């Protein structure tokens, strides 16, 4: 046993004894909570067919999130960000164990698995782009980037 380990054990023992003497409870700090197992799954960055800006065409452009953890995650306040626009997620819970949520560019009625940005123009650039997922606190949690590939309109993140 190193002298540092011995010293640490003695200090913890002394602190515990002091806590008991004053009727307090000694708690040892646990490691920081792990970040949610949430990430981008895929993006349909170029809606199939002609880019007509019709709502149907806009909704064929989407980006998907996946929860690879065991527990469901409430996404309220999380943001999906592009250089030109930001979407703030409402009170939506993504299921655990592979649950997915799709964010479509156009208008529609949102559900727990399909969200609608309500835009009248495309968000994701066909020639390459980066989507950023931010936490409620505004910290970058994940990104998904792509470059145009011949014949591809969808990418796995």
Mean pLDDT: 83
Distance between the termini: 47 Å
Rg over alpha carbons: 23 Å
Tertiary shape: globular
Outline the biggest β-sheet. 5 strands, mixed
- Which range best describes the helical content: under 10%, 10-25%, 25-40%, 40-55%, 55-70% or over 70%? 10-25%
Q: CATH superfamily name?
A: Lamin Tail domain
What is the H/E string?
HEHEEEEEEEEEE
CATH architecture: Sandwich
Would you give the CATH topology? Immunoglobulin-like
Domain LTD: 29-148
InterPro entries: Lamin_tail_dom (IPR001322), Lamin_tail_dom_sf (IPR036415), TAT_signal (IPR006311)
Pfam families: LTD
Protein name: LTD domain-containing protein
Could you characterize the architecture of this molecule?
Residues 29-148 form the LTD domain. It is built from two helices and eleven strands; from the N terminus they run αβαββββββββββ. It is α+β, with helices and mostly antiparallel strands and 157 residues long. It has a single domain (38-156), classed as Immunoglobulin-like, CATH 2.60.40. The strands form three sheets. It has a five-stranded mixed β-sheet with strand order 8-7-2-1-11, with no helix packed on it. A four-stranded antiparallel β-sheet has the order 5-4-9-10, with no helix packed on it. Strands 3-6 form a two-stranded antiparallel sheet. The relative contact order is 0.19. Residues 1-32 have low confidence and may be disordered.
Task: Map the helices and strands.
Elements: H1 3-21, E1 38-44, H2 55-59, E2 62-67, E3 73-74, E4 79-81, E5 86-88, E6 93-94, E7 99-104, E8 114-116, E9 128-134, E10 140-147, E11 154-156
Parallel strand pairs: 7-8
Antiparallel strand pairs: 1-2, 1-11, 2-7, 3-6, 4-5, 4-9, 9-10
């Amino acid at each position: 046993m190193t002298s540092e380990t011995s010293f640490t054990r003695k200090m913890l023992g002394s602190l515990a004894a002091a806590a008991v003497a004053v009727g307090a409870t000694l708690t040892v700090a646990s490691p920081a909570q792990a970040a949610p197992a949430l990430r981008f799954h895929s993006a349909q960055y170029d809606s199939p067919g002609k880019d007509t800006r019709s709502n149907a065409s806009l909704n064929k452009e989407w980006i998907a999130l996946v929860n690879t953890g065991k527990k469901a995650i409430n996404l309220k306040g999380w943001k999906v960000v592009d250089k030109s626009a930001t979407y703030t997620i409402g009170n939506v819970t993504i299921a655990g164990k592979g649950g997915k949520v799709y964010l479509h560019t156009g208008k529609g009625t949102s559900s727990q698995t399909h969200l609608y940005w309500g835009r009248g123009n495309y968000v994701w650039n066909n020639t390459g782009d980066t989507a950023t997922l931010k936490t409620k606190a505004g910290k970058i949690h994940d990104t998904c980037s792509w470059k145009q590939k011949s014949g591809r309109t969808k990418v796995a993140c």
